[in-house]
Design a protein that fits this description.
Layout lengths: L1 H30 L3 H26 L3 H26 L2 E2 L2 H23 L10 E2 L1 H24 L13 H32 L4 H26 L3 H26 L2 E2 L4 H21 L4 E2 L1 H21 L1
Antiparallel strand pairs: 1-4, 2-3
Helix pairs in contact: 1-2, 1-6, 1-7, 2-3, 2-6, 2-7, 2-8, 3-7, 3-8, 3-9, 3-10, 4-5, 4-8, 4-9, 5-8, 6-7, 7-8
Length: 317
């Protein structure tokens, strides 16, 4: 039954992704808003809802390992698996602003989380945690990111003015709303069923967070970016991955830590380093590409590296 319901949840994710991408693309076309901005905001928020729900609930229930591992594991999955799959579906050209601004911002967010989580190492009482103050700091930087997105939206307001909306505005809003709902409930269903299966196998919270839950909560991103890539919406596909990574580190972790302090294990630093390495790999791939395009070979490399990482995490667990 768990496996059957898991399949139903995945189907909901695919339907939600299709509705969200179609609605968001139409909104971008109708109002002359850059598709990249839509990917960094509407799509990123919608696909980050599962991470938000899981981390907040886990934090309130005292399962800090699950809350933190969910965010870190999801970010690794976003970059290596989600972007890797999207690029395998179709090579994705990346805007210069993404290379010089959004991706470095995502990298900076990971470094900030690492610094805040390990700041106690320099104090007489080395008790590592992400405190409520740290959560407020993360939310402050998230606000800075949203100000940047607002600035980009104003500068590129008429960038896509030649694109024709495929559906009317109200129907697009309905599509976006239904898409987010399907992603939310589908993500919840996938996570709950996957956790049920993992519990039956006697797996611990930290390992579940980095693998089963991270994969489950990243399913909306996988679906949304793959569909966007297939529809040749490169800005939405890439913007969704980068935006979701920033949302997870600054918004999801910031909200969760603001509600309840999250103890941080030293072993989690290994996974944070993997987030940093993954973000750096995107930059290196784009720098070495002649046309600033992520190629299928890059996608295969990312997915393979994610498989190696999962093998290491399972062995460690």
């Amino acid at each position: 039954m768990d496996i059957l319901l898991l399949g139903v949840g995945l189907l909901l994710l695919l339907i939600g992704a299709e509705l969200l991408i179609k609605g968001a693309s139409s909104v971008a076309s109708r109002f002359g808003v850059s598709a990249l901005v839509v990917g960094l905001t509407i799509v990123s928020f919608g696909t980050s809802l599962p991470e938000m729900i899981v981390s907040v609930i886990a934090g309130l229930r005292g399962s800090a390992d699950l809350a933190i591992a969910n965010v870190i594991g999801s970010n690794i999955a976003n970059i290596l698996l989600v972007l890797g799959v999207a690029v395998i579906v179709r090579p994705l050209p990346v805007r210069e602003s993404t290379v010089v601004s959004e991706i470095p911002f995502s990298l900076t967010a990971a470094l900030l989380v690492g610094f805040l989580a390990n700041a106690a190492l320099f104090s007489p009482d080395p008790h590592l945690s992400i405190s409520r103050l740290d959560g407020a700091i993360l939310l402050f930087f998230f606000c800075l990111f949203m100000l940047y997105v607002y600035k980009v939206a104003r500068e590129k307001k008429h960038l896509d003015h030649n694109a024709k909306p495929t559906i009317n505005t109200w129907l697009a809003i309905v599509y976006i709303s239904l898409g987010i709902l399907c992603l939310y409930f589908g993500g919840q269903w996938v996570v709950e069923r996957a956790i049920g299966i993992a519990r039956a196998w006697g797996v611990g919270d930290a390992l579940i967070g980095l693998t089963v839950v991270a994969l489950g909560t990243s399913s909306p991103e996988i679906a949304a970016s793959a569909v966007a890539a297939y529809r040749q919406q490169a800005d939405i596909a890439v913007g969704n991955v980068i935006g979701s990574s920033i949302f997870n580190l600054l918004w999801v972790l910031g909200i969760t830590a603001s509600i309840v302090e999250l103890p941080f294990e030293v072993i989690n630093n290994t996974d944070l380093v993997m987030v940093i390495v993954s973000s750096t790999l995107i930059i290196l791939a784009l720098v070495t590409s002649r046309s600033s395009t992520l190629l299928r070979s890059h996608g295969v490399l990312f997915v393979t590296l994610y498989g190696v990482y999962l093998t290491y995490v399972v062995h460690r667990g």
